TrEMBL record:
One record GO biological process: transmembrane transport
InterPro entries registered for this protein in UniProt: ABC_BtuC-like, ABC_TroCD
Matching Pfam families: ABC-3
SUPFAM superfamilies: ABC transporter involved in vitamin B12 uptake, BtuC (SSF81345)
Presence of the UniProt keyword Membrane in the record: yes
Membrane topology category: Multi-pass membrane protein
Stated name of the protein: ABC transporter
Keywords: Cell membrane, Membrane, Transmembrane, Transmembrane helix, Transport
Localisation: Cell membrane
UniProt similarity note: Belongs to the ABC-3 integral membrane protein family.
Membrane-crossing segments per the record: 12-31, 66-87, 99-122, 134-154, 166-184, 211-230, 251-275
Any single GO CC term annotated in Swiss-Prot or TrEMBL for this entry: ATP-binding cassette (ABC) transporter complex
Source lineage: unclassified sequences, metagenomes, ecological metagenomes
Length: 276
């Protein structure tokens, strides 16, 4: 019976995949060519759909290469961490962190306009504001860690349940981030900064600096999971047993949350705060 059920499940999945491919090719045949993008890179408007597709899959355009490479690295980093997060029944944590980092993104962007000529001689110039990936990353990580700390504090010191603490943190941090983004858009360089792309993401806006940052974080996550796989596995599946064998469960949990914050931050440019 089990073998028959597995066979039927495989046949059902195969049928679903076949129907999905059929639907995609049907749309390609039905949708008029005028509904597709006019050009890819510097391809002229009169270029046919087939030539556009060929140019896209040849990866000759840097924006296409960066988008594909960045998406692959995001899939690796988020996939590795997502397994442990789901097993720990903390799926909402990623959503909360993605919204909580928004104020840090905005503050990191604003901090790029700060210049220091001395220890206590600081100045802020709107004209110097730019999208610095390192500053945005640091600001977002600090905001993410602050959001995690707030959730833990509310859960341990009040009668608020964890899901309520997550919702409260998500709403409050996201509201502050929206206010800061609105203020940035009113600056002379705000509309040209591309900072608004962090809301919904834009994979085509990924540049070489973003790729370097994604690569560093992805390598860090892969290395940590490879080295501490057994510890992460035990603490995720049986926290009581992990404590009984003297594993530092709290430190492992906080380290995992820090890695999740890293993964969320590097995913913002591609998929945005709303979709992470």
């Amino acid at each position: 019976m089990n073998q028959q059920r597995q066979t039927l499940d495989k046949q059902g999945l195969g049928a679903v995949h076949a129907l999905g491919l059929l639907a995609v090719f049907s749309l390609l045949a039905v949708v008029p060519e005028s509904a597709w993008p006019a050009k890819i890179g510097d391809v002229a408007e009169e270029t046919s759909l087939g030539q556009q597709a060929l140019r896209f899959f040849s990866f000759r355009d840097p924006s296409v290469r960066y988008a594909v490479i960045g998406s692959v690295m995001l899939g690796i980093s988020c996939g590795l961490l997502g397994c442990f997060i789901v097993v720990r029944k903390m799926a909402l944590v990623g959503d909360t962190l993605s919204h909580a980092v928004l104020p840090g993104v905005a503050l990191g962007f604003l901090f790029s306009g700060v210049s220091a000529s001395g220890l206590f001689d600081w100045s802020f110039d709107v004209a110097n504001i730019t999208k610095n990936p390192a500053l945005i990353f640091c600001g977002a990580v600090v905001a993410g860690v602050a959001g995690t700390f707030l959730v833990t504090t509310l859960k341990q010191t009040t009668k608020i349940k964890e899901d309520s603490a997550l919702g409260l943190t998500l709403a409050s941090f996201f509201a502050v981030g929206i206010c800061l983004l609105t203020m940035i858009q009113d600056l002379p360089t705000g509309n040209k900064s591309g900072i608004d792309k962090f809301m919904f993401g834009q994979a085509a806006a990924i540049d070489e600096d973003d790729i370097r940052l994604m690569l560093a974080v992805t390598l860090l996550i892969v290395a940590v999971v490879f080295v501490f796989y057994k510890e992460l596995l035990v603490t995720s599946f049986d926290a009581g047993f992990a404590r009984s064998i003297a594993l530092p469960s709290e430190w492992i949990h906080h380290g995992l949350m820090l890695l999740v914050a890293f993964a969320v931050v590097i995913a913002l440019q591609a998929v945005g705060v709303v979709l992470v």
